[in-house]
Amino acid sequence: MKKIIGILAIIISTTAFSKNQPVNYSVHKNAGKSQIAKKVSDLKPGQQRQYKVMHERAMDNKKKHKMAIKEIDNQIQKERRNKKPNIKKIKKLNAKKSRLQDDQERSMLKFKLEVKDKFGIKIASSI
Fold first, then answer.
1. What is the SS3 assignment for 19?
2. Is 7 exposed, middle or buried (0-12, 13-18, 19+ CB in 10 A)?
3. Per-residue pLDDT tens for 46-71?
4. Which residue positions does the secretion signal occupy (predicted)?
5. How far apart are alpha carbons 115 and 107 in whole angstroms?
6. What is the separation, in whole angstroms, between the first and last Cα of the chain?
7. CA–CA separation, 35 and 122 (whole Å)
């Protein structure tokens, strides 16, 4: 019983003297996305629609690349699990995966440059 009272006293004292401070969301990993959303909301309605179309197209393209890369990763893992993996096939799959990753990065960079040129919004490389 004394232990419970002691624990309760510690909990009550720490919570009673704690400050009620707001959370700083600027350090959150999604802070950049919310800043972009604010900049997009400052655009004219027609420009917002253009941005939305461009963004959806870029994200669809990114999703297709990710799915293709994931499929190649699965093929590589399947080949490596074989008793005698075909090294030539693995190298070929790795080269194909590298090309897809390069293509994905290139298309995202193109999207970011288009957004910067059309709307003056700089998008960080984390997207």
1. coil
2. exposed
3. 999 999 999 999 999 999 999 999 99
4. 1-18
5. 12
6. 54
7. 10
